[in-house]
Every structure is written in structure tokens, then in C-alpha cells.
Amino acid sequence: MAKRSAKRQEQRRTLRRQKRLIAAAALGVAALLAVGLLAYRAMSGGSGDGVTVEVIVPAELSAEAQAGAALFQANCRACHGPNASGTKLGPPLIHEIYNPGHHSDDAFYLAAATGVRAHHWPYGDMPAQPQVTREDVGLIIRFVRELQEANGIEYERYGG
Ligand code: HEC
Predict the structure, then answer these.
(1) Is 57 part of any domain?
(2) Residue 144 near ligand 1, beta carbon < 6 Å
(3) Which string of b and e fits 74-111 if b means at least 16 CB within 10 Å?
(4) Its pTM surpasses 0.85
(5) What is the pLDDT along the chain (160 residues), one digit of tens a residue?
(6) Closest Cα to atom 34, ligand 1: which residue?
(7) Alpha carbon of 149 to ligand 1 centroid (Å)
């Protein structure tokens, strides 16, 4: 009887030791994953919070730009931020990259109609915005271009 319970005790102790080992291993794996994630984020060039810029909003926007602003808030703001200043979901459009020499108005029409494959940023693809008409996009472009101008983003010929 005594012998048997000693054996059982030994089994229990072994089991406890195994559980502790598994817990330690799990902790190790979690720590490695955390370090890996941090390294990945550092390498992909962002803290994961996206790029945002300060945007000066001119006191005087044209009537078209004002209409475009309302459409922008309703359809683009969620990712591009209020005044196209960027969020963690999408880039600022008030940015050198989007000067009219590098991204013409056609780039805007195309982005809204067909979406954008991620190529400049680590955010991922932009989905198409079929609820926005071509006319709407024209007004949104007026808004973005007037903001760009007020923030010193000027036409620069792409590649030359
Ligand atoms: C669900 C998020 C999301 C919404 C909503 C969104 N965008 Fe985007 N947009 C993105 C992302 C992300 C990119 C960057 C893709 C890249 O270049 O890596 C982008 C890129 C763009 C570009 C650059 C296109 C190019 O050729 O590089 C334009 C222009 C643009 N968006 C306009 C708009 C307009 C106008 C709206 C509203 C009608 C809008 N976006 C709504 C996420 C969004």
C-alpha cells in the first residue's frame, strides 16, 4: 500500500515538472514572437501607426473644393484622414508623392474606380469606392489640390 502511494506521488511530481516545462516553453515562444513582430515592424519602416502630416487648411476654398471636402469626409477620411493628413489605414495625400506631376488627376479617378494595389506604403491595397461618381471624384480632386497648394506641394515632373 505504502509503496504504491509513493509511486503515485512520484508520478504526480513528474507530471508537475512536465507542466512547468511546457509553460516555460510556451512563454519562450511568446517572447520570441513578440521580438519578431517588433523587428518586423521596425524593418517595414513604421510603428504600425501610419504616417500623418500637419495640414494647413486655407481659409478660402473654392466652391468646388468645399463640395469636394464634404465628399472626401464621407468617403475617404476613414483611411486618408481629415484633410487628407493620413491615418494608420491610409497615407496622407497632402504629400510630395501625390503632387500632380507624379499622381495626376487620372490617378484619383482610377483609385476611386478600381482601387489601388499597395506600392508606395505598407498599408495594403485600397479598395475601389464604387459609391463615388466620377463627378464626385472631380470635386474631391479640387479639394485635395487646393490643400496641396496651400501646403507647398507643387507640380514636379515625375522622373525628370
Ligand atoms: C479603406 C481605406 C481607403 C479608403 C476608404 C480610401 N483609400 Fe485611397 N488609398 C488607401 C491606401 C492604403 C492607399 C495607398 C496604396 C499604396 O500606394 O501603397 C491609397 C492610395 C490612394 C491614392 C494614390 C493612388 C496611386 O496611384 O498611388 C489616391 C489618389 C487615393 N488613395 C484616393 C482616395 C480617394 C479619393 C478616396 C475616397 C473616394 C480614397 N482614396 C479612399 C486606402 C484607402
Answers:
(1) no
(2) no
(3) ebbbebbbebbbbbeebbbbbbeebbbebbeeeebbeb
(4) no
(5) 566 788 888 888 888 888 888 888 888 777 777 766 655 554 444 446 789 999 999 999 999 999 999 999 999 999 999 999 999 999 999 999 999 999 999 999 999 999 999 999 999 999 999 999 999 999 999 999 999 999 999 999 887 5
(6) 76
(7) 19
